[in-house]
Amino acid sequence: MLRIPPSLIFSKPLAVIGLLNGILAFFCCGAGSIHYVRRGQKRSWTAMTAGLLLVNIVGTLMQLAEASFIYTDTDDTALFLVARNWTYGVSILALVLVQIEIQLVFSRGLMLPSVLGPQYRKQLYAGMITLNIVLCSFNYVEGVAFPIQDGSSWKSLLTSFGPGLMAMLVAFNGLFQTIFIVYHVRRHMVKMMEAFSPETSQGASSIMAHEFSDSTSPTAEPPLPTIAQPSVPATSHLNPTRTAKKRFNRLSQNNQREQQQVMLDIIMWVLGLLIIDMLTSIAFLASYATFGSSDVDILLNRTALRQISFALAGIHLYGETVLLTMIIDRIRKSQKGQSAGKESEDPDPLAG
Questions:
Q1: CA torsion sign, 146 to 148 to 150 to 154?
Q2: Which of 92-101, 129-138, 145-154, 214-223 has the least mean pLDDT?
Q3: What percent of the chain has pLDDT above 90?
Q4: How far is Cα 131 from Cα 315, in angstroms, rounded to an integer?
């Protein structure tokens, strides 16, 4: 059984790394939970806000359950194992669902044609939930329907094989997500730079009004009207058309720089999540390896690697919720800019 006696925690570097990663993941998911509680209180509680709060709470509980299971010095670990298995299975499911939501929202925000559009959200969610139940079924009932496995039976193989397949699904979907977002963000930035160039500055307002807006929203506001020429006395030596154009170009350049920074932040965040995703998969697969100078060393190394993979999964879970919030807030800001001065109640963008 994969356990680390408390007295041996600091005897191996991998055990220390696992402990530190677990602490970091706990605080990340805990901070995410606090953030979405405050967000809901400050703006409004929506299904999306509550969902992202629940995702971070599950990630926090997973770290607590994993630490309780591997560090508790007792022979009766069934309760801790069941809690660990359930929180891990639900966390992997939450990761896939958040990834799907990111791709749907991102496609809708950039008005990209997509075969898997928002109208298929329920079917995608139902399919992933069903797949999770099938693959992780033995993991969910271990310690309840049958005794805890020692690694030598076919049941033990299935308790690890199913969650492993779900983890690989997250990894492949994360790779697709990275390629998808980086490609379209780069394409959007090129179009934006072309629109804000001096030769095509008159088309900038069109890009600002349409790009990164929710085309499926029934309450979407019409594009901004053409900027009016400022009234200048007839005796002024300034050309009113030239003055208005300079003001427009200055505002356009500021908006361009702001949008570019947001896009670069999204790209860097996505690439960081891909690295975490790869490290999670490597640590999980390496936890099945048997290396060490003794049986105790082998057990400690395998347990530490498994804990590292669980901790990285928790950090990844938190990072995906942050990425989704970044994208939705960017869409919300674009939509707010299209309101043309119209007063609104400023609804929470996570209502989707």
A1: positive
A2: 214-223
A3: 23
A4: 23
Positive or negative torsion for Cα 239, 243, 248, 250: positive
- Distance separating alpha carbons of residues 21 and 77, to the nearest angstrom: 22
Residues in contact with 349: Cβ distance below 8 Å, sequence separation at least 6, in sequence order? 328, 329, 331, 332
List phi, psi (to 5°) of 234: -65, -25
Counting every residue written for the chain, the total comes to 352
**If DSSP codes are grouped into helix, strand and coil, which group holds residue 146?**
strand
B/e letters for 182-221, b = 16+ CB within 10 Å, e = fewer, are bebbeebbeebeebbeeeeeeebbebbbebbbbeeeeeeb
At residue 238, does pLDDT exceed 80? no
pTM: 0.76
Rounded to a whole number of angstroms, the distance between the first and last alpha carbons of the chain is 43
What are the CA-CA distances from residue 272 to residues 85, 88, 220 (Å)?
Answer: 27, 22, 33
Name the phi and psi angles at 276, rounded to 5.
Answer: -60, -40
pLDDT tens, 241-287? 656 555 555 555 666 677 777 778 888 899 999 999 899 988 888 88
